[in-house]
Amino acid sequence: MIGPVPDAISRDDVIHVARLARLSLTDQEVDRFTRHLGDILTHASDVASLDLAGVTPTAHPLPLVNVLRPDVVVPSLDRQEVLAAAPAVEDERFMVPRILGEQA
Amino acid sequence: MADSGMLSGWEMVVGLEVHTELLTATKLFCGCANEFGAEPNTNVCPVCLGLPGSLPVLNQAAVDLAVRIGVALHASVGPSLFHRKNYFYPDMPKDYQISQYDEPICSNGWLEPPGHPRVGIVRAHLEEDTGKTSHMGGDGRIHGAERSLVDYNRAGVPLVEIVSAPDIWSSGQARAYVSELRAILIAIGASDGRMEEGSLRVDANVSVMRKGATSLGTRCEIKNLNSLRSLGRAIDYEARRQVDLLNSGGVVEQETRHWNESTGRTASMRSKEEAFDYRYFPDPDLVPLDPGEDWVDRVRLNMAPLPADRRAALEAAVGEDASSAIAGQIATVVELGLDGLVTAAISEGVKARLAVARAANEAAAAADAARSLDAGRFVQLLKMEDSAQLSASQTKAVLAELLAGAEGSPEEVAARLGLGSMDSAVLDAALDAVIQAHPEEWERFRGGDNKVIGFLVGQVMRSTQGKADGKAVRAGLASRI
Ligand SMILES: [Zn+2]
Which residues make Cβ contacts (< 8 Å) with residue B313, sequence separation at least 6? Predict the structure, then answer.
């Protein structure tokens, strides 16, 4: 799953990832996170330097598979309670701003 | 049907992604009801709304249906993981969709659409459906919408996405693939197969390449294909568009395109910058899934017969009568789930050709009612037609009544409708009257012109208001030569 660890992370990588997460960062924050994320990747590259051929990747820290529930309906939330948490409501539905063409 | 043969010098290559909602009682990761058409936002809970602190737990029935799909598609069913597919769009309140990424539950299968080459199945994976957004204001379509309204009842409904290999070379093969896949999903109880309600959705990846080329062209993904007809038209249009573009020196850009059923065209959906960077990572709230051999074997043993097997069984029951002319009717009968009725009739001695025809044509008009029709009544009715007690048109009338919920045996229904075999004296009189009224046609018939018999039979049918039996009329005419 985890490929080769990149040597370093660039400022552009940080700006790209911040944008994907809808985070707005100041220049100083970009510098700081470039350093922090670089440190984390350097730490992870210690693992990549080991000979792990034949070691099964860990999919989950708990040694469990097949945690399942029966297909039985349980009551849902009260709609008024649900919609009370919405930023805006129309027709018993969540109202959100226009979706595509948001530059307009 | 337009085909790749029309793309002189080029051929199309198509891969299909079919999403099917699963027929479970609850959603994939929570106990909210999985039902179509409920009041907006009434089937939602902290899990499917992505409220902080809520934890998803996988639905055993959804896994079981995914295993069934894998077995039905001759795929390997193995250990799998759930990933988060991250994106910002209000149809998922969590801002990610739980899906399977590099380790899907099913991989490497195949499906053979009747009459077309086999299509490989790359993978089939479990994922959750998204909420339903309606775009308001503007012209009502996505572009120009002023606001969107979201109903989260569908968010978290279990889906299986079935991804074919690019093994499809014509719109006809694409339609046959989806049609057969749909029949399989219905037969194994995984899906209701309703394309118009969106419980079965198809996206098509279309590219074109020069005949004989070995590498695939750039593909476009076509969305909004709500019927088999749309699927076929959209693929033909898109392949043609790409060929025209390339022939005129243009370049096909990889993009998502929207099929417009009323204009018959595909149009580019402006894709947001970086829209495809989903940053998949394993969902830490979910542990790996591994149904294991026992589960898969249990599913295999309890699997309902697949459409291909049912077609073969019906063809065997029809026997020597199974000419290519009724192969299409046999496929229809199986698709509509009426093979039980037909097999019952044939085993009771009704002529196979008759049983298949009545099921594929007349019963098909009310297939839901026909599936729940008592086989005994169907058999009785067909025996009445087989023994000339009822004419073909009378049988059809009685069948329509039975399918509309009429009480009583076919005999009683026929009697209520005033139908029954004609007294031979009445039929003789009708035959004589028609011969007298149309001397010219009668002479031609006597002279060996068999083409005119349809006219004469039609006249007798008309004068008896359809009560005469066609076979008896023909026999009566022949005996008078
Ligand atoms: Zn829920």
Answer: B305, B339, B343
* Cα A74 to Cα A47: distance, rounded to the nearest angstrom: 44
For the domain made up of B424-479, the CATH class stated in words is mainly alpha
Rg (CA), chain A: 22
Contact residues, chain A, for B30 at CB < 8 Å: 74
DSSP H/E element including A46: helix A27-48
- For ligand 1, the distance from its centroid to the CA atom of residue B365, given in whole angstroms, is 38
Q: Write the residue in B41, B58, B145 that is nearest to A83 by C-beta.
A: B41
The pTM score is 0.81
Number of domains within chain A: 1
User: Does residue A2 form part of some domain?
Assistant: no
Q: How far apart are CA B154 and CA B48, in angstroms?
A: 9
| Domain presence at residue A16 | yes
Burial class (CB in 10 A: 0-12, 13-18, 19+), B342: buried
User: Is residue A78 less than 8 Å (CB to CB) from chain B?
Assistant: no
- Ligand 1 centroid–CA B204 distance in Å is 31
The pLDDT tens digits for B258-270 are: 999 999 999 988 6
CATH of the domain at A33: 1.10.20
Q: Where are the domains of chain B?
A: 2-300, 307-416, 424-479
ipTM rounded to 2 decimals = 0.82
- Residue A28 belongs to a domain: yes
